[in-house]
Amino acid sequence: MTKVAFIFPGQGSQSVGMGKELVDMDERSMQYFQDADRVLGFQLSSLILEGPQEELTVTYNAQPSLLTVGSMIASKLIEGGITPDFTAGHSLGEYTALVASGVMSFEDGVSAVHKRGLYMNDAVPAGEGAMAAILGLDGEQVKTVTDAITADGHSVQPANLNCPGQIVISGTKEGVEKACIQLKEVGARRAIPLDVSGPFHSSLMKPAAEQLRAALDGIQMDDATIPVVANVNASVVKNSADIKELLVEQLYSPVLWEDSVRMLIEQGVTHFIECGPGKVLSGLVRKIDREAKVFPVYDKLTLEEVIEASKGWS
Question: How many alpha carbons lie under 13 Å from residue 126 in its C-beta half-sphere?
Fold first, then answer.
């Protein structure tokens, strides 16, 4: 029996012009862009469709932009007859999953992630935090090294456990630099510094988490109509109070993406549809389980292909 999960990408997937072909298809799709502009009070739609890329990539713009495009794509898939059995998202993408699962309205979701981006941007002064991708080691090997460096006074920790052999670390600039050197010494194939504006999913984000809690307290959150797999513990959640606590914790905790995908597979998911620009999550799912069927949807052709393919699912 076919079970479907909608999965939603996080920051880094944004690109100027994303979603344009789909917006041009009908007025309902354009409404997402117009509603985002209205809620935020500035022309987010122009940034998405026209750029510049540097401005789109700033965290408090990238987050609502990706949520807007992902939500629009999910709605078009549902209109096309595909209803997910589960949703999940990578970091920021978890909010898009929550919109698709009925936990928060699209308007509240756009507002929440814009504020989330502002809080994250302000939490650590520019240049003091860093992130890096570590290739070729497992989670325990990485954690052993980062724990020792943190105990020595330079905060750093695993931030994204993406797939076998791919872990992102996050922390102070010094902590990340020391970790990259030591992780290569213990066998990492590569340690790649990431071009990000802050040490996301590290303990340095705790001040932003308290601000986020206040923002989430100000919006309506309902129990999920479609179960969501949470980043923080890779568990299936539906209760709105639990979801709110997990979103606050998510800001300074590792994203357990590999475990989340494995949980979806344990729940019987056979087909993963990535709703948003790029194919990052599709690639990660394939590395986690080669048997999984993966469909990235980011333009008119990929949308039509997956809707047509779904007619043969049983």
Answer: 5
Of 196, 228, 250, the residue that ends a domain is 196
Contacts of 24 (CB under 8 A, 6+ apart): none
How many structural domains are present in the chain?
Answer: 2
Domain of residue 31 covers 4-123+204-310
What is the DSSP secondary-structure string of 173-191? Answer: HHHHHHHHHHHHHTT-SEE
What CATH number does the domain containing 105 carry?
Answer: 3.40.366.10
Query: Tens of pLDDT along 79-132?
Result: 999 999 999 999 999 999 999 999 999 999 999 999 999 999 999 887 899 999
Q: Which of 90, 114, 154, 201 is catalytic?
A: 201
Q: Are 158 and 191 in the same domain? A: yes
DSSP tag of 314: -
Catalytic residue among 71, 91, 111, 197: 91
Averaged pLDDT score across all residues of the chain: 96
Q: Is 271 among the residues known to form the active site?
A: no
Element (H, E) at 132: strand 129-135
CA distances from 220 to 92, 99, 102, 105, 215 (A): 18, 12, 11, 8, 11
Given a cut of 90, whether residue 38 has pLDDT beyond it is yes
Nearest residue to 162 via CA among 185, 192, 182, 186: 192
Annotated catalytic residue 91: yes
Residue 196 has pLDDT above 90, yes or no: no
Predicted local distance difference test score (pLDDT) of residue 27: 87
User: What confidence tens digit (pLDDT) does each residue in 229-278 have?
Assistant: 999 999 999 999 999 999 999 999 999 999 999 999 999 999 999 999 99
> What b/e sequence results for 59-97 when a residue is b if at least 16 CB atoms lie within 10 Å of its CB, and e otherwise?
bbbbbbbbbbbbbbbbbbbeeeebebbbbbbbbbbbbbb
